[in-house]
Every structure is written in structure tokens, then in C-alpha cells.
Amino acid sequence: MQTQMLDGGFTQPALQAATAFRSVMEAMARPGTIQTMVDAAPPAPLSPAAGAVLLTLCDTETPLYLAGGCDTPDIRTWIAFHTGAPLVGPSACQFALGSWADLMPLSAYPIGTSEYPDRSTTLIVEMPELTQAGATLTGPGIKETAALSLPETAAFQANGAQYPLGLDFIFTCADRLAALPRSTEVR
Amino acid sequence: MYVAVKGGERAIENAHAWLAEERRGDVNVPELSVAQIREQMALAVNRVMAEGSLFDPDLAALAIKQARGDLIEAIFLIRAYRTTLPRFGTSEPIATDTMACDRRISATFKDVPGGQVLGPTFDYTHRLLDFKLAADGDVADAPQRETDQADVPHVTDFLNREGLIEEAPHDDTVPRDLTREPLEMPADRPLRLQALARADEGFTLSLAYSTQRGYARNHAFVGELRIGTVDVEMDIPELGFAIDIGEITITECESVNQFTGSKTEPPQFTRGYGLVFGQTERKAISMALVDRAMRWEELGEDNVGAPVQDTEFVLYHSDNIQATGFLEHIKLPHYVDFQSELELVRKLRREAGAADMQEAAE
Amino acid sequence: MTDYNFAYLDEQTKRMIRRAILKGLAVPGYQVPFASREMPMPYGWGTGGVQVSAAVMTTDDQFKVIDQGADDTTNAVSIRSFFERTAGVATTTQTAEATVIQTRHRIPERDLTEGQILVYQVPIPEPLRFLEPRESETRKMHSLEEYGLMHVKLYEDISRHGHIATSYAYPVKVEGRYVMDPSPIPKFDNPKLSDCPAIQLFGAGREQRIYALPPYTQVVSLDFEDHPFVASKADHPCGLCGAEDSYLDEVIIDDAGGRMFVCSDTDYCTARQADGFKGKDAA
Questions:
Q1: Which pLDDT score, from 0 to 100, does residue A4 have?
Q2: What's the mean pLDDT when you consider all of chain A?
Q3: C253 — contact with chain B (CB < 8 Å)?
Q4: What is the per-residue pLDDT across B101-158, written as a single tens digit (0 to 9) for each?
Q5: Which of A36, A41, A37, A49 is nearest to A6 (CA)?
Q6: What is the percent of chain B with per-residue pLDDT over 90, rounded to a whole number?
Q7: A122 inside 8 A of chain C by CB
Q8: Which residues of B332-359 are buried (b: 16+ CB within 10 A; e: fewer)?
Q9: In chain B, at which residue ranges do the beta strands (DSSP E only) sit?
Q10: Is C196 a catalytic residue?
Q11: Is C15's CB within 8 Å of A58's CB?
Q12: Cys-Cys link to C178, which of A95, B347, C29, C167 (CB 3.0-4.6 A)?
């Protein structure tokens, strides 16, 4: 195992994971806000923010799907060492990681069941850019309206229409992050 | 003049200091050692290990000492400690047919290969207080002989060979673990057994007793009860094979239950199973009866509405740590809820009074 | 107590709780099952709230704990000292300063703000539990949005008493979808649940459920057109600070049954007194 694969994790796991989680939670609780994540240094092309999300939320209990360009030997090794998350296909994953195009189609992921809508995938979408502009968001967590540079709108509208079932999204770009739960209405 | 209460922190500290003093009792009486509890209160230690779900006689003895002999409190201490322990792995299933038995009895056959072994039991003691124990505890050595015990086959295997008892096919499925995932209904048998193994002894006993008195009677015989030690093996991936990591004492009870058949099953004997840490035979027998009763659905029996057939009821109320916590929490302050109830009751009474007055006036 | 992890829980447990919190935020009011751990304090005494607090807490937080609105009730003291010891977190009694507030039975009087998280201790998370004891049934009722039973119960109250005879743990509907138990807060506090700038998290340890309200979530107390919900409290001002807008405790002060009413939120009352407000019973 190459030594650099062992680097790039949290140096103080308990404290850094706590701070990172607060950023993820704020993002999920306030769709459209952009949070800055604590340092993680995963192998390219993974963004530091996506790396920090994996370190914060994933472990041996969370099946993970690596889509397209994120499925590299380096990234696999890094994830195995730092999280132990089992790698699976989209239909069995609790988390999925990749670019928007690579993650398609959304119909491949579990959206939960009517009795357990929580049993749905959270997609970590690597974004070329992330700004508070673009689609208009309303719903829980948003005082009036918010805006976010989503990759498209139709897919999120279709996802929201399945509420309370549906997928939840975390968008990552460099060291920044935003989120879009299924409860958000996208226009 | 009323002043809002302050000093909760000091009150708690003082209460703890007083508690410690009470725990120790009269200092002119020698203090109990953990080893004394472990050796001389062994059945209490066993219960704490079983319901605490942690096989460690020394820690269980320490917990009993700290809890002033309150076994549920001791179980709580063990549970809270247990959850903080890292998990290094999972053992192989223990092989109870290789048990070194201290006790092994069957109520269904007069003699069985491996023999009946009465063992250290209270069963035939006359329950007369032994006042000699109050003076000194010296005991004569118990008679000994060389053991000729080889493997001890399960009594139910003999019935199985004749096809008279239901099959218990081997299953390698990894059972769910209710200490690591939320309890979810319907619960399969492995999960039910896990819950029963750590269930409150008194609750399990009463449920089992209720089946004997006709609430989902299941005609149980103790096919076999065995108590002894078994090896615990763990597979070490780095080595590529399993090694012995220790030895535990357990009690296993297999009940053999009459069964005249159902819509789906032929007449045959059926099984109930109990397995508990330590020498804990009341619990193990109770567990087997309750297990058997909860199997009504898979055996095609009628639900006669007996408490023990209600799996959800049994599993959600069998844990004494959950039960005692929630029961005792009602002694915490509830001023706020109570105040809102006070206002409501006063309002309803006022209105009822006004309505009565009006009626009287009319 | 040495060698325990930051905020007591091990990292794997925290991750499990954190994942449940995120799903709870994504489906407001829905109860997410989680593998609640055995905590070193009894079930029913805030183990759910403690686990949620432990999962969200950072070293930068200012932590406040209230029970019945007060910081100095014994169980609040005990939980606060638990986190002082296991997380080294800074604590405060001032609502305005706190970033994480764990509460049992009250929502602070002072408006919460965007930087804050309110963590509720929940004994029975299932609002339908007293109508239907079976988890398997209530789960189905939520999935089918079948809340008729609850409305029938409330309406029976009205026909018998002329009022809805529920004064605390008064059920609410979240974003028009899930009926939720707000924990045993007095119904006086119910309006504060809705459109709140803070994140509200609910933890039920023994019952193994976590649920959440993101900021600005619409939360409506169940009622009927002809019997609208009313947030009520004792009809008195606070004897110490004179506040007329705060929830009051009734205190019996002498053998003759004399009584006075004081704010249940001790921080609110203290701050008002410091600002010079005086009730009729103040010294």
C-alpha cells in the first residue's frame, strides 16, 4: 500500500469529524447555503469537501457506490483505509459519489419505503462550481427562497414529487459544500 | 419569600457522598472484596453477566458491589460499560455438544448417552435455613471421581433420528444484532432469542409460567438442561484459522413440546430453546418456554391472544434496563406538564361548575 | 472515567447518529430509527437527547441544558456536567449565548436564532402511541398518512369536555405531512416550533428514534375549525419579574396553600429582573 494513500484523513478524527458534520448538517438543514469544510486531502480527482464528507459519514456499515471517474484504484484504497465502507452498485448503496453525469440515472438508487423513507441513498455530487445562483429553492430550512447552482432542475422536481420518499443530495466543490434534501421544492 | 432553587450541583455531590457511605455500611464490619462476591455470590454474578450481556465475572462482581447488591443497577453498570468496548470481531458459534458438563439432566429419558449428572443444584435441598452458615462457612470437600465424559450428544438428536421432532436445520445466516441496530418488527427467531437471552429473569419467568397455566400452553418437557463450560473460538483472518480465546460457563435448555399438528405441520415434537451465560437455569428454562410460545405463527398454531404470543409486547417490555429507566423517570421533575394539566383540570371544573349552576337556575 | 472519546460516544456510533439526523432533517417530522446505545444514565432521563447532543457538539460550542425550563434542576445539572467532563465543552445558562441547548419539556422564552440547535429529550416519540400501542401498526398509519384516529380522539375530547383535553405533548403536523409528537412541552410552547430560525432535533433513546425540524419548517398544532388551537398558560404575571408572556410554574409557599406563579424559564426571569423588571412578589 502506498503511503500517501494513508494520508489525507483527519488528524484529529473526533474533533474534525464533529466540525465537518456541523457543516454538513447546516447545509442539509438550510438548503441553498454554502458551507466550508474542514481539511481532508483525498486523492485526485476527489474534492477535499467530498473527502471530508466520506470521512464524517461513511464506515463499514455504509455501502458506497463510486460512479465513473471517482472509481479509481487510488480512491478505492483511500476509502478502504480511512472508512472501510464496502463498495457496491447503485441499487444497494447508502451513499453514492461522483459527478452528476456519472451518477445517472437517478432511478438506479433506493428511495426508501413508505414505512422507512429514511432508507434512501444520499448522493455526493462533485460539482465544477457551486454558487448561490440558479434554481430557486423553497421549503423546510429556507426562510423565503434560496438559490443554488444545481446541475439541472427537472431531476430534482421529479425527486421532490416522490416525497416523503426520495434521494438527498450533497454537492461538493473544492472545500465547499451545499445540500438539497428531497423536501426542497426546486423551480 | 420564594427564591428559585439553586445548588443542584452541590445536592448531587452530597447525595453521591452519602450513597458511598451507605454502600460501605458499618465500617466495623469488614469490607467485601470483589473476589468474595465473585466466588460466594456466583449466581448473582451470573445473572448480572447474562442480562448485562457481558461475560466477565470480575466486572459483574464489581458492579454488584458498587450497586449495593441491586442486581438491575449492576446490570445497568455492565451494559453501560459494555457499549464502550471496541469490537474486535465475532466468535464462531459455540458447540454445546462438546460442553464439559457440571450438570446435565433430561426429563424425557431415564438414561441417555453421557448420563444424567445432577451437579451442584438446589433442587433437592430442603429449604431449611442453615444456621451453621451464620457462624462459619467451612464446608467438607465434595466427593470426587474421574470423569468419563466424552462428547455429550443432545437428547433432541435422538428424537430427531426417529423423525419425531421438528427439524432444526443448520443456518449460517448472520443474525441481526439488537445492540447495534434498532429493534424492528417482525422479529425473526434469532433476534427474539437474543432479546430473551438478555431479558429480565423475572419477566421471562412470569411469561413462561403463564404458558404453563394455559395462556398459550405448549406442553413443555425439559428435553435437556445442561450447564458447563464451552470453548470460545474466534476466526483470525491474519492466521486463516480459528483459535481458542477462552472458556465460558453457560446454561442451555432444550424443551421438547408436545404438538398434535396444525394446518401446516404434522404431529411431532417441537422445540423451544434457551441459552444463557453462567449457571442460570431458571432463566434458561423460562427462555425455552417463551421462545416456543412465540413460534406459534411459524408452526401454524392459533393466536389465542395470550400475552406471550404477542412478540411485539414481549420484546418491547423484556429489557429491565429500559423498563427501570422509564419507570423511574417519573420521579424527575414534571412541573411543567403538571402545571398544564392543573390549568386544564381547573378550567374544565370551572366550566362544569358554571354549567351546573345554570342548570340549577333553569 | 478516563480514556473515553470526545463527547463519550465512539466515532462509529456518532456517525450512525449523524446519518440519522441528516435523514431526519430531509424528512421533517418523520421518526428515523437509530441504534440507540446504552448510556451511562438511565433510559427516560435524556439518553436520546444526550446522544444527539454528543453527535452534534463541537469544541466551539456553548452548551446549555434545561429541564422544566430551568438550568439548575438536578437532571439538567447532571447532563451539563457529563458534557463538561467528557467533551470539555463550554457551558452557559444564557439562552442568547448558547449554540446547543438540550431541553426537557420546554422551549426557551427568548426567540431562538439561526446559529442555534435545540435538542429535545423525548420519552415517547410516537404521537399515535396512546391510541395504538403497536409500533407495527403506527408505522403503517404514518406511511398511509392515516391520522383519522388522532382526530377522532381530539374530537371526543371536545364532545365530552368542550375542549381538547391535551395540555402537553400536544400533537402537531409538520409541513402538511407527518403528525409529530413535540415531546412533553406544554402546548403553550407549540407555536414556537413553527418557523423557528434554529435547528430542532428530537432524540428518543429508549424508543430508538430521532426526528428533526429544519429551520423555518411549518408546524401546525392539530385542531378543528370550530375549535381552534389555543396556546394557554396560567393567567397570571410572573411574581418575580412581572412577565405576562412567559410560561409559569406554580409554587406553593406556605402551609395555608398560598401560592405564587414564577417563570419556568429561569434564564428569562433572571435577565428580566436584572433589567429592572419586578413582579409583585419580588423582594
A1: 59
A2: 95
A3: yes
A4: 999 999 888 888 878 889 999 999 999 998 888 887 778 888 887 776 677 888 888 8
A5: A41
A6: 59
A7: yes
A8: bbbbbbbbbbebbeebeeeeeeeeeeee
A9: 100-105, 220-236, 241-257, 270-277
A10: no
A11: yes
A12: C29
Ramachandran area for residue B305 (φ above 0: left; ψ -120 to 50: alpha; else beta): left
**Which of the 8 DSSP states describes residue C99?**
S
User: Could you give the ipTM of this predicted complex?
Assistant: 0.97
CA distance A13 to chain C (A): 8
SS3 A67: coil
Would you say B100 and B228 are in contact if contact means Cβ atoms under 8 Å apart?
yes
Contacts of C34 (CB under 8 A, 6+ apart): B182, C16, C17, C20, C208, C209, C210
Residues 6+ apart with CB under 8 A from A27: A33, A34, A35, A170, A177, A178, A179
Q: Is the pLDDT of residue C2 over 50?
A: no
CB-CB contact of A70 with A126 (8 Å): yes
Q: What angle do CA C172, C176, C181 make, to 5 degrees?
A: 20
Phi, psi of B91 (to 5 degrees): -75, 165
User: Which of chain C's residues have a Cβ under 8 Å away from the Cβ of A122?
Assistant: 22
Indicate the Cα dihedral angle A122, A125, A130, A132, nearest 10°: -30
Residue C55 contacts A, CB cutoff 8 Å: yes
φ, ψ for residue B55, nearest 5 deg: -85, 95
Q: C97-125 pLDDT, tens per residue?
A: 999 999 999 999 999 999 999 999 999 99
DSSP B141: P
Judged by a CB distance cut-off of 8 A, whether residue C30 touches chain A is: yes
C chain contacts of residue A168, beta-carbon cutoff 8 Å? 22-23, 26
- Report the alpha-carbon distance of residue C215 to residue A170 in Å, rounded: 18
Torsion sign, CA atoms A91, A95, A97, A100? positive
Q: Write the DSSP symbol of residue A68.
A: G
**Once rounded to an integer, what is the mean pLDDT over residues C257-278?**
94
What's the rounded Cα separation, in Å, for the pair B304 and B284? 24
DSSP helix/strand/coil, A180: strand
Using one digit for the tens of pLDDT, what is the confidence trace for B304-318? 999 999 999 999 999
Return the pLDDT at B112: 83
CB atoms within 10 A of CB B185: 14
Matching residue, cell 404431529: B267
Residue B202 has pLDDT above 80, yes or no: yes
> Which one-letter amino acid corresponds to residue B305?
G
Residues 134-193 of B with CB under 8 A from C: 179-186
How far apart, in whole angstroms, are the C-alpha atoms of residue C20 and residue C28?
A: 12
Quick check: bond before B266 cis, omega within 30? no
Of the pLDDT bands very low, low, confident and very high (cuts 50, 70, 90), residue A1 is very low
Q: How many interchain CB pairs under 8 A, A with C?
A: 119
| Positive or negative: CA dihedral C192, C196, C197, C203 | positive
Q: Which residues of C touch B351 (CB under 8 A)?
A: 161-162
Kindly state whether C88 is in contact with chain B, defined as any CB-CB distance less than 8 angstroms.
no
Q: Which of B103, B276, B265 is nearest to B204 (CA)?
A: B276
Across the strands, what pairs with A124? A97, A170
